[in-house]
């Protein structure tokens, strides 16, 4: 009988260790699942959009954060005809509009590394007045957009890297 009680004690000890290890494994699994959930809950999702129709008073190239967390910009590259303009700031926009023949820009956002685009925020990369909607004006703007491309590298609050790109050639195809 004493032998049986001694064996039951060691079985109980082993069962306690197994239960403790299973509880620990479950806690680790829960921790990873919670972290995965939190990452998804704060994931930014940048996308480009173009407004060019009679329904809008301006032609616009927009960058929107449609995700559920802020986007921290690491790099923003704009190319015209495959080349990155050497100018910076207002000189870059003035040169761009001059080379494209679009006229006056009513607004623009300069984006640079370290900028944050909040959830549901829209940044106007370029905005041009359309005036009276004329097919030749919209064709000139479409032709100019074909020459532009943007690449934005950004990250989430959890340091997950993302890249979004936009190419006018992809959106509008080759010249008409």
Round the Cα radius of gyration to an integer and report it.
28 Å
Largest sheet features: 4 strands, antiparallel
Secondary-structure element pattern, one letter each? HEEEHEEHEEH
Query: Numbering strands along the chain, what is their spatial order in the largest sheet?
Result: 4-3-6-7
Structural class: alpha+beta
Strand content: 25-35%
How many E strands? 7
The residue-averaged pLDDT reads 81
SS element count, helices: 4
Cα end-to-end separation: 96 Å
Low-confidence stretches: none
Overall structural domain count: 2
Shape: elongated
Helix content: 25-40%
Overview of this structure, please?
With 176 residues, the protein is α+β, with helices and mostly antiparallel strands. It folds into two domains: 1-41; 46-172. It has four helices and seven strands, in the order H-E-E-E-H-E-E-H-E-E-H. A four-stranded antiparallel beta sheet has the order 4-3-6-7. A three-stranded antiparallel beta sheet has the order 1-2-5, with no helix packed on it.
How is the secondary structure organized here?
Layout: H1 2-41, E1 46-51, E2 58-65, E3 71-80, H2 89-100, E4 116-117, E5 122-129, H3 135-146, E6 148-155, E7 161-167, H4 168-172
Antiparallel strand pairs: 1-2, 2-5, 3-4, 3-6, 6-7
């Amino acid at each position: 009988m004493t032998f049986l009680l001694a064996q039951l004690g060691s079985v109980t000890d082993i069962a306690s260790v197994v239960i403790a290890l299973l509880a620990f494994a479950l806690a680790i699994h829960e921790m990873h699942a919670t972290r995965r959930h939190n990452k998804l809950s704060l994931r930014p999702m940048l996308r480009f959009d173009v407004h060019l129709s009679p329904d809008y008073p301006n032609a616009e190239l927009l960058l929107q954060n449609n995700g559920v967390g802020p986007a921290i910009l690491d790099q923003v590259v704009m190319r015209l005809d495959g080349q990155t303009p050497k100018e910076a700031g207002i000189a870059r926009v003035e040169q761009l509009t001059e080379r494209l023949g679009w006229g006056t820009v009513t607004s623009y956002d300069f984006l640079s590394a370290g900028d944050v685009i909040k959830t549901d925020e829209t940044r106007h990369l370029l905005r041009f007045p359309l005036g009276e909607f004329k097919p030749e004006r919209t064709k000139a703007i479409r032709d100019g957009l074909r020459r532009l491309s943007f690449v934005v590298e950004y990250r989430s609050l959890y340091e997950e890297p993302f890249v979004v790109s936009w190419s006018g050639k992809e959106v509008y195809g080759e010249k008409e």
